[in-house]
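Work Package 4 report. The design task specified in the project plan requires that, given a folded chain encoded as structure tokens, an amino acid be chosen for each position. We show below one input record used in the internal validation round.
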């Protein structure tokens, strides 16, 4: 399902570009399939279960780099999302942020590509937790408490007049992350339900003011 969603999103982004004739018939979803296969091949057992690679290098032929040039950044983002979706489906964890870099391999023929994957640990221990903003930007949640609010000195700054200066706090517990409302004016909601304090699960939507963020634990 994740790769089908990946392909559909990318098709909308490129607006038919890939339907035009090229020397190569390489489709982005083929790269996504190879990437997830590398995750399966290089997974390993960790303290919190199965750990999958989170750092990927995709090397394309010059012709395919030219072909994808107008949306190479979008391709990297969509491949990273495909990796996260595959990890959720398979119950994998990451120990650092998911990163996909695309490079040109001068010796590769059109249609040929190489995907390498490795586990790269982030600065914090335990499953990797992030808050995803509506524009796709991500903020990692570390080991220490993270305060969300409108003040510039907050760990997670939300530029929303309906968000309190210090609105909510995220903190690690032994098996996940808990969100606590800090007495905000408009409250904190998880999946539409007002909460004072609640442990989060991956995919939960946290609404503060007029802004909804998605919690991802991987």
């Amino acid at each position: 399902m994740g790769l089908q969603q990946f392909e559909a999103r990318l098709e909308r982004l490129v607006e038919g570009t890939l339907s035009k004739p090229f020397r190569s018939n390489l489709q982005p979803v083929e790269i996504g399939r190879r990437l997830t296969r590398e995750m399966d091949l290089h997974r390993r057992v960790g303290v919190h279960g199965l750990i999958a690679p989170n750092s990927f290098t995709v090397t394309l032929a010059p012709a395919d780099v030219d072909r994808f040039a107008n949306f190479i950044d979008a391709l990297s983002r969509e491949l990273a999302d495909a990796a996260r979706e595959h990890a959720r489906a398979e119950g994998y964890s990451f120990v650092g942020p998911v990163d996909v870099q695309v490079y040109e391999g001068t010796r590769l023929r059109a249609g040929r590509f190489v995907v390498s994957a490795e586990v790269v640990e982030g600065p914090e221990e335990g499953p990797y937790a992030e808050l995803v903003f509506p524009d796709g930007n991500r903020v990692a949640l570390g080991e220490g408490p993270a305060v969300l609010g409108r003040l510039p000195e907050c760990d997670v700054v939300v530029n929303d007049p309906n968000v309190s200066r210090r609105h909510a706090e995220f903190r690690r517990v032994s098996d996940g992350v808990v969100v606590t409302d800090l007495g905000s004016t408009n409250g904190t909601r998880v999946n539409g339900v007002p909460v004072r304090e609640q442990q989060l699960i991956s995919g939960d939507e946290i609404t503060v003011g007029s802004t909804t963020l998605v919690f991802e634990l991987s």
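The two ends are 18 Å apart (CA to CA). Validation will be extended to a larger panel in the next phase.
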